[in-house]
Automatic annotation (TrEMBL):
Keywords: NAD, Oxidoreductase. SUPFAM superfamilies: 6-phosphogluconate dehydrogenase C-terminal domain-like, NAD(P)-binding Rossmann-fold domains. This is Glycerol-3-phosphate dehydrogenase [NAD(+)]. Residues 193-340 form the Glycerol-3-phosphate dehydrogenase NAD-dependent C-terminal domain. One of its GO terms (molecular function) is NAD binding. It comes from Pisum sativum (Garden pea). Belongs to the NAD-dependent glycerol-3-phosphate dehydrogenase family. It holds the Pfam family NAD_Gly3P_dh_N. Residues 3-172 form the Glycerol-3-phosphate dehydrogenase NAD-dependent N-terminal domain. The lineage of its organism: Eukaryota, Viridiplantae, Streptophyta, Embryophyta, Tracheophyta. Substrate binds at K119, R268, N269. The keyword NAD applies. PROSITE patterns: NAD_G3PDH. InterPro entries: 6-PGluconate_DH-like_C_sf, 6PGD_dom2, G3P_DH_NAD-dep, G3P_DH_NAD-dep_C, G3P_DH_NAD-dep_euk, G3P_DH_NAD-dep_N, NAD(P)-bd_dom_sf.
Length: 354
């Protein structure tokens, strides 16, 4: 019998719990109960978030108005939440993942496997590491990934969307994840390309920041389409430089071009970047994040910084002018208008490749 725990309970984590819970209750090979680890918070009412979720079957802070399923159990104790699980779904902001993994070392089942819904990467002195690799290395488990064109609030309303599972070698494990997530309104497929799927989910947030800046500057669809096209090219080139095994075809899955389009049209990175440009860059992304996202985390700006560190270390900065521009604007080195000026400074031999 398979036991599932969601490690994370934000907006996307709560939607993942809803999807999975609707399937485990109908699949004989899965225990009905889905545990969801909740980073405990005290609500304005004085109540604990985990208690309210269990009483109302609703994450009133991060996904208000949506019932998660009566078989979802919120648990503020991480060790207790994972102790019986052989299927671990990781969905916390990427900057917290290393700390979470360190707490779980030696505390999970030996036959456990994981899937990461986390978009971002870890950058250290020894080089960049994908979150799925971090999980695998620290916990000694196989870890797949799930990424796609899926804005959480729309999935919560059961509007049709898609996602892609990326796996390394174990096709059977991938199909188990597909079975666990797939619903009539959430169509899931799998590809044997963990790095490609995860890099798409990571890098598209940088391009979404650029798209939001365009919206804040009140520029049109032509400009936004150009930014998205250049961003897609940079996503593929950067991914293949880091991981030569990345397949071009992966960018045509839901995790690739579809997720890029969705994130550049909606989503928190675009939304906050638009506000940043509307304010002429006078209010920081940190300030806007705190005001606008109500506890959710903005990934695009942090990812732009991490990617820039990799580019500087490896001498790639001039190869990725859009990524460079997003980093410099979001760090306060350039004004928001620079997002449409960077193209003039691209060396001709690089521009021709874009």
């Amino acid at each position: 019998m398979n036991n599932v725990t969601i490690v994370g309970s934000g907006n996307w984590g709560s939607v993942a719990a809803k999807l999975i819970a609707s399937n485990t209750i109908n699949l004989r090979s899965f225990n009905d109960e889905v545990r969801m680890w909740v980073y405990e918070e005290t609500l304005p009412s004085g109540e604990k978030l985990s208690d309210v979720i269990n009483q109302t079957n609703e994450n009133v802070k991060y996904l208000p108005g949506v019932k998660l399923g009566k078989n979802v159990v919120a648990d503020p104790d991480l060790m207790n939440a994972v102790k019986n699980a052989n299927l671990l779904v990781f969905v916390t902001p990427h900057q917290f993942m290393e700390g979470v993994c360190k707490r779980l070392v030696g505390k999970i089942r030996k036959d456990a496997e994981g899937i990461s819904l986390v978009k971002g990467m870890e950058v250290k002195r020894e080089g960049p590491s994908l979150i799925s690799t971090l999980i695998s290395n620290q916990l000694g488990i196989n870890c797949s990934v799930l990424m796609g064109a899926n804005i959480a609030d729309e999935i919560a309303k059961e509007e049709f969307s898609e996602a892609t599972v990326g796996y390394r070698r174990d096709k059977a494990a991938a199909e188990r994840w597909v079975q666990l997530f797939n619903t009539p309104y959430f169509s899931v497929t799998s590809v044997q390309d963990v790095e490609g799927v995860e890099m798409c989910g990571t890098l598209k947030n940088i391009v979404a920041v650029a798209a939001g800046l365009i919206d804040g500057l009140k520029m049109g669809n032509n400009t936004k389409a150009a930014i998205m096209r250049i961003g897609l090219k940079e996503m593929l080139a950067f991914s293949k430089l880091l991981f030569p095994s990345v397949k071009d075809s992966t960018l045509f899955e839901s995790c690739g071009v579809a997720d890029l389009i969705t994130t550049c049209l909606g989503g928190r990175n675009r939304k906050v970047a638009e506000a940043f440009a509307l304010n002429g860059g006078k209010r920081s992304f940190d300030e806007l994040e705190e005001q606008m996202l109500k506890g959710q985390k903005l990934q695009g700006v942090l990812t732009a910084k991490e990617v820039h560190e990799v580019m500087v270390t490896r001498g790639w900065v001039d190869m990725f002018p859009l990524f460079k521009a997003v980093y410099e604007i979001s760090s306060g080195f350039l004004p928001p208008t620079a997002i449409v000026e960077f193209n003039n400074n691209i060396p001709h031999h690089i521009k021709n490749k874009l």
